Amino acid sequence: MKKLILIFLITVSATAFGQTAKKFLQSGIEKHRMQDFQGAIIEYSKAINLDNKNRDAYYNRGICEFALDNIDEAKKDFNKTIELDPKYADAYYTRSRLFVKLEKYEDALADLDKVINLDPSIPSVFTIRGQIRAQTGNKKGACEDFQLAKSKGDSQADKFLSQYCGNEQQRGESLMLHWPEKENWKVADEVNNKDIQVLRLVQANETLDNWTEIGTMFSIKGIINSNLDSAMNMMYEEAQAKAGATTLTFIEKDEKTKFPWILFTIEPSASTKDKNAESQLWFIIQGKDALYCNYRAVKSPKLSKQLKDKWIRFFKSAKILYK
User: Fold this and answer.
1) Radius of gyration (Cα) for the chain, nearest Å?
2) Which of 85, 105, 138, 219 is the most buried (most CB within 10 A)?
3) What secondary structure does DSSP assign to 43-100, as a single string?
4) Using 50, 70 and 90 to split pLDDT, how confident is the model at 19?
């Protein structure tokens, strides 16, 4: 009888243990969805303390650490996730983004190779690997990747095929900006000609006529050595002409780096009564061959600090690729 009681108690304890770890994991996911990354990290850590083999808790905590730019901690969590589940493609993919941020391109390529071995159906993986290969001098491999991405339906593949795989003497430059898959972005509109390229993105269940958040990337070829303040003011004046009363707020710039950039917001003025008025955060960066202008926007009278911080981190992850 004592033995049966002991077995019963062990079984009950193990069940309660698992439910508690699961509860903290779910709580972390809820905070994560609200972009409370610090709060989510606390909850995921509680789940890990109760269950140190909880793959999802490590992976999700790593994503939050990465979002907060805690690179070393994020890397440890991704490493642990892969140790627990060597076939977890998402962990390799996200860790590859971390390596790109650190400019450790060989490590990033190794992780992307692993993702492709585990799940070769994702077109964007080939596109990203192709861009890294192009930047590191492997033009043949890059072109093969862009062709594969095109065959799998990636709408951006043609742009990179034209950029890197055409005339050998043609110089090519592009801006690499990774729009997170977990946000379900899709290309809604694309324009390419000899002077300008425009790419507009919305989330999977939305359209250009009905959106809650939109992303825009456009490059103007031949614009070099531009005055970033003038570019910012030009975008502000254009917004005023289209939307009426707006407010321009400078955030940050770096004119001494190899590729100078500026960040600013354009938001509706307090007097604006238009319910569809949008708030935008802009990132403009000067390349060697073109000026790259990018913004994200929501239909809101003002951007929250949390959203601004998130978008600033996103835009600062941009890389200009040049051959």
Assistant:
1) 23
2) 219
3) HHHHHHHH-TT-HHHHHHHHHHHHHTT-HHHHHHHHHHHHHH-TT-HHHHHHHHHHHH
4) low
Alpha helices in 168-322 (DSSP H): 228-243, 305-316
Note whether residue 97 is domain-resident.
no
pLDDT in tens, 269-278: 876 666 678 9
Specify if 249 maps to a domain.
Answer: yes
Polymer length in residues for the chain: 323
In a domain, 112, yes or no: no
Structure tokens at 253: 């710039």
Number of domains in the chain: 2
Q: For residue 303, what are its two tokens? A: 């951007």
Burial 79-102 (b: 16+ CB within 10 A, else e): ebbbebbeebbbbbbbbbbbbbbe
Amino acid letter for position 50: L
Show the domain range for 307.
Answer: 173-323
* Structure token digits, residue 219: 């490059």
Last residue of a domain, one of 86, 118, 150: 86
Say if 29 falls within a structural domain.
yes
Q: Could you tell me the two tokens for 83?
A: 């140790």
Sort strands 213-221 and 196-203 into parallel, antiparallel or unpaired: antiparallel
Structure tokens at 66: 């990465």
Provide the CATH number for the domain around residue 230: 3.40.1000
DSSP SS3 for 287: coil
Beta-bridge partners for 296: 215, 281
Same domain, 45 and 183: no
Q: Is the pLDDT of residue 14 over 70?
A: no
- Do residues 177 and 81 both lie within one domain? no
Please tell me whether residues 203 and 298 are part of one structural domain.
yes
- The region of weakest confidence among 76-85, 128-137, 267-276 is 267-276
Question: What is the reported pLDDT for 289?
Answer: 86
